[in-house]
Fold each of these.
Amino acid sequence: MSQLPHLAITLGDPAGIGGEIILKALADSSITENCYITIIGNRDYLQTTYKHLQQNSNLKPQDLANPENLDIIDLPSPTSLTFGQGNVDTGADSFNYLQEAITLTLQGKFQAIVTAPIAKSLWKAAGYNYPGQTEVLATRAGVDKFGMLFVAKSPHTSWTLRTLLATTHIPLAEVPSTLNPQLMSLKLDLLIECLHQDFGIENPTIAIAGLNPHSGEAGQLGVEEKQWLQFWLEEERGKRPQTQLIGLIPPDTMWVQPGQAWYGNYDYQIQSQAADAYLALYHDQGLIPVKLMAFDRAINTTIGLPFIRTSPDHGTAFDLAGKGIANPNSMKAAIQLGVELATIRNKC
Ligand SMILES: NC(=O)C1=CN([C@@H]2O[C@H](COP(=O)(O)OP(=O)(O)OC[C@H]3O[C@@H](n4cnc5c(N)ncnc54)[C@H](O)[C@@H]3O)[C@@H](O)[C@H]2O)C=CC1
Ligand SMILES: NCC(=O)COP(=O)(O)O
């Protein structure tokens, strides 16, 4: 019998909802039965979260795992915890949790890292100048080709939405000048490799969005499609006969088919032949539809790393911290996908 995968879960910013969604997820035996889990964070913070939620919310005792029964790598912290009020110290703590998880994973202790959310602004305040956890993971892993892929399985139809972002944490104004044929080909390479390796899809169909309204309307509403994106796509079609590349799809209608596949609603003329994956050109072009459809269950996974990393799709939700009402489903889905991918890769 093969061994169960061992996952590290980082606590994220301790003032956010990370502790709560971890304790809720680990109270569910269907989440923990197929893996070993070690939390990388701070035992006192988890105990404080546990006790606070037991005493100040409507949660029942069985809704939360007791930190006393969990395997925790306990990293000391200089500060006491105020829910919803992250600061320089909680920013630094959350950065250290991630660093420790990466170090131990690179040493072979864990097969996957699941990260709870951090506040990017508090990393910056603490002197860590990374746009997000993705970039730290890539830097420490020594890779310069990586991507941010969002995966979500529909509760209505079981269809899986996969959305890769061509650009990620950059200002909107920098998107047109950051996109170029090399970057697009690199993202497509990563996506095809991931669909093959992690999802068993040999000859995928991939839909690619345009950048401008109506994909530029022949240059009238934007020039990037006409200047180079369409040529790039034709060239890729020639190079990749096994992959069906659909596009450039006007961004406003790109999400109609996935929406129908997600909800199982095919009651008008657009036949549902949803793609295996969607390539969005910038953060909000891809994430607004993902979060509309699947905010409570989408997973953010970093592709191109030598190890598995998954994460809930949401942030620290400081506005909810300490109230007991944070939804743990995206964290549960992130743990489940971490286990699935680790199991697949262990067999390879
Ligand atoms: N992977 C990560 O570490 C991510 C971190 N962030 C960080 O999180 C911080 C806050 O970002 P926001 O844009 O406000 O996004 P957010 O996802 O934290 O919150 C957006 C809205 O969704 C709600 N929400 C979030 N998670 C929820 C859950 N599990 N259950 C119920 N409601 C939930 C919040 O209450 C809020 O109303 C920022 O500093 C950002 O950098 C944001 C996204 C991902
Ligand atoms: N919106 C996605 C996001 O912020 C992911 O951030 P991270 O996983 O790189 O920390």
Note: The mean pLDDT is 95.
Amino acid sequence: MEAVMSFRATSRVSFQAVSSLNNRPKFTSSGMSLPISRTLMVEQKCRIRAQQSDSKDGSATLSTVGDSEGDALKIKEWEVARLQDEIAASQGIRIRRRPPTGPPLHYVGPFEFPLQNEGNTPCNILEEIVWNKDVEVSQRKERRPLSVLKKALENAPPARDFIGALREANLRTGLPGLIAEVKKASPSRGVLRENFDPVEIARAYEKGGAACLSVLTDEKYFQGSFENLEAIRSAGIKCPLLCKEFIIDAWQIYYARSKGADAILLIAAVLPDLDIRYMTQICKMLGLAALVEVHDEREMDRVLGIDGIELIGINNRDLGTFEVDISNTKKLLEGERGEMIRQKDIIVVGESGLFTPADIAYVQQAGVKAVLVGESIVKQSDPTKGITGLFGKDISF
Ligand SMILES: O=C(O)c1ccccc1NCC(=O)[C@H](O)[C@H](O)COP(=O)(O)O
């Protein structure tokens, strides 16, 4: 039986993917620095599940796998997950995809030794969110396999030009284009707005001159939902919509598109380079913009090394510690990085912690052409006036 994993390897590969379950992966004694997209494996698993559910009598593919093949599959999946964490760590990514687990029964192999002393509590809130998201996405995928989701795309409302809307607003007002966030609550601030009507807030933002909207869809930590995204899209709001979600799997991109999103968020602190490459390609295929978010120099350098990135968000909030410092935007746009961004004509979005016209002027001076703002405007009883207050003038003309 054919193996169920796809590997991509570079010339530095010290690991040979094998294509039969009867063979075990072969390792050399050197390190294992090859990029493997975790997405590829998850998608493959999804395909298997889809094949199973597509099969009328349920007997397709895996149901014929005996115990030993099942064990081999578990071991390979586990090893791939370990490799993915190693690759991520080699790119400075501290966030692990899921809690570390012990090896499957009978495992003998290269990962035995580093396993000792590994804790299984998340290292920070972002890792906790990612671990929960991993479980949530697996469950959602069970209910709606990718094959079903792709069909649903035929009925999705067309994708609109998110980046074009930001550029146009920037040219029209001479100020950074506003991505106004529909945000009920957050882990750092708790509930921001008790009386929360997402469509009403979205309308108020549009009236106030927002170029685009960001809609939080995470339920557990932000009290958002995909229903909110769908409701805003079907209410006839013209501003293109960013699906503000913690994306760890390409399936989520298709899901966001099926719910009417025009853009999605990719967080460099969570996603290895190969995932970002792969996911931005999927976005292009679906007509979506990808806002690739960075928080420090290393993440910025990684993202600048990826071809085809058009939109970079600099988050002033450290998603691990919640510390907010708007000088982060300035720091990451100084020197060669800023130069490269201008050469590549990348739009930079200043994100988080923006409350006053002085804050907006500061990040604009640093080089941003757009800003992403939640708390300071969603908390206002009239978010339209909140926007005017934030910019120090009416930007709705
Ligand atoms: O906002 C949080 O507490 C938070 C915690 C963990 C991960 C992400 C988080 N927020 C996402 C964002 O970056 C903001 O929603 C967005 O940039 C708007 O920020 P703000 O204007 O400060 O509400």
Note: The pocket of LARABZUK is lined by residues 125-126, 181, 183, 186-189, 315, 317, 319, 322, 351-354, 372-376 (CB under 6 Å).
